[in-house]
Design brief:
This protein is an alpha/beta fold. The protein has two domains: about 25-55 and about 280-370, Aspartate Aminotransferase, domain 1; about 70-280, Type I PLP-dependent aspartate aminotransferase-like (Major domain) (Aspartate Aminotransferase, domain 2), CATH 3.40.640. The protein is built from twelve helices and twelve strands. The radius of gyration is 22 Å and the shape is globular. It binds pyridoxal-5'-phosphate. Pyridoxal-5'-phosphate binds near residues 101 and 170. Pyridoxal-5'-phosphate binds next to α3. One of its GO terms (biological process) is L-histidine biosynthetic process. Aminotransferase that catalyzes the conversion of aromatic amino acids and 2-oxoglutarate into corresponding aromatic oxo acids and L-glutamate. Its EC number is 2.6.1.57.
């Protein structure tokens, strides 16, 4: 092939004009793959993935659909929408799907926010929140977590102004693993004006066993401004296929569909999600195993002297402050890639028992070395 000559004058022409909002964009740090160490199985426990491979029935559905990928997927995502409606006991008109719940979140921001509008959420929370907000030209209003790494719902209600269009409540919270309580959520929702949309991001719902956890679907049924956001990426183990959904009242759901990228949910994701809903009982057994491992890990860490807040998702939060980089490095040296957050702490996914055992070893050694 011959090289294409550079366009005449391209070097000294005016720079292309890009949106100013991009300059303010926080960068999404994906979980790194584990460093390979000789004689040691490496584990990537930095992205809250499900350690189990796809169920045979789900794989078979994906294989069956693979032969048809020369065709566009169903634009309306009809079969999955119907299956979700039946699964959740809501009308199909209330379901809006997207490429991962991050995709749906993007639709939510674009459906509600004009330039300079405000999106209120806790911090630390899910990294995608400030990115999607800023990309849409809206302003992130980040409300510090309360002691115990929990949402400060009273402060979040105080942070709502005339410019607020959206409030994101992440429960369990990524990366701190804590849930909001049913009663405090109720009191919070009573305070939020009805024209402000509240999203309850339940990416980790299936792992929750706290008795005072909220019933997000009941709140959605009772309040036109409450949206429930869920994903097939975590408990359902379909992170690589990208599919999530919102349950929203009809005008909102319609707006979300209007903001969706056409054909955003691919055909393999659609069949895999339907097959996964059909196998919900089988998946629940795996979720139970992960929750049991979480409880084992948290109990052992507390035994070692760590102060771990109540953990309700498929990961564990270490509130390490300045020791964050050192702990992450100690994990990496043993073939465990965890997710450090600045000088706040480290999040480690609950994975295979062997990975969890190794995490406990590293954590125990780190703790003894630092704190006797
Ligand atoms: C993982 C996660 C999601 C889901 O991401 P997908 O795009 O569905 O893979 C949403 N919210 C939170 C808080 C998460 O941690």
């Amino acid at each position: 092939m011959t090289a294409v000559p550079p366009a005449q004058g391209a070097a000294d022409g005016a720079p292309v004009r890009l949106r100013g909002a991009l300059d303010a964009l926080p960068v999404y740090t994906p979980g790194r793959p584990a460093t390979v160490r000789e004689g040691l199985t490496a584990y990537k426990i930095s992205s809250n993935e499900n350690p189990f491979p796809p169920l045979p029935s789900v794989l078979e559905a994906v294989r069956g659909a693979a032969g048809g990928v020369n065709r566009y997927p169903d634009l309306a995502v009809a079969e999955l929408t119907e299956a979700l409606a039946a699964h959740l006991g809501v009308p199909a008109q209330r379901i809006a799907t997207g490429p991962g719940s991050v995709g749906v979140l993007d639709q939510l921001v674009r459906a509600t926010c004009d330039d300079g509008d405000e999106v209120v959420f806790a911090w630390r929370s899910f990294e995608a929140y400030p990115i999607l907000t800023t990309l849409a030209g809206a302003r992130p209003v980040m409300v510090p977590l309360a002691p115990g790494a929990r949402h400060d719902l009273a402060a979040m209600a105080d942070a709502v102004t005339e410019r607020t269009r959206l409030v994101l409540v992440c429960t369990p919270n990524n990366p701190t693993g804590t849930t909001v309580g049913a009663a405090e959520l109720e009191a919070f929702l009573d305070r939020v004006p009805p024209e402000v949309l509240v999203v309850l991001d339940e990416a980790y719902l299936e792992f929750v066993d706290a008795p005072d956890a909220p019933d997000a679907m009941a709140q959605h049924r009772a309040r036109p401004n409450v949206v429930v956001l869920r994903t097939f990426s975590k408990a359902y183990g379909l992170a690589g296929l990208r599919v999530g959904y919102a349950v929203a009242h009809e005008p909102v759901a319609r707006a979300l569909r209007a903001c969706a990228l056409p054909f955003g949910v691919n055909s393999l994701a659609q069949v895999a999600a339907v097959a996964s809903l059909e196998a919900a009982d089988e998946l629940a057994v795996r979720v139970k195993e992960i929750v049991a491992e979480r409880e084992r890990v948290v109990a052992a860490l507390r035994e070692q002297g760590w102060e771990i807040p109540d953990q309700q998702a498929n990961f564990v939060w270490f509130d390490l402050g300045e020791e964050t980089p050192d702990f992450a490095q100690a994990c990496d040296a043993e073939g465990l890639t965890v997710r450090p957050y600045g000088l706040d702490g480290v999040r480690a996914t609950v994975a295979e028992p062997e990975a969890n055992d190794r995490l406990l070893e590293v954590a125990g050694r780190f703790r003894r070395a630092r704190h006797g």
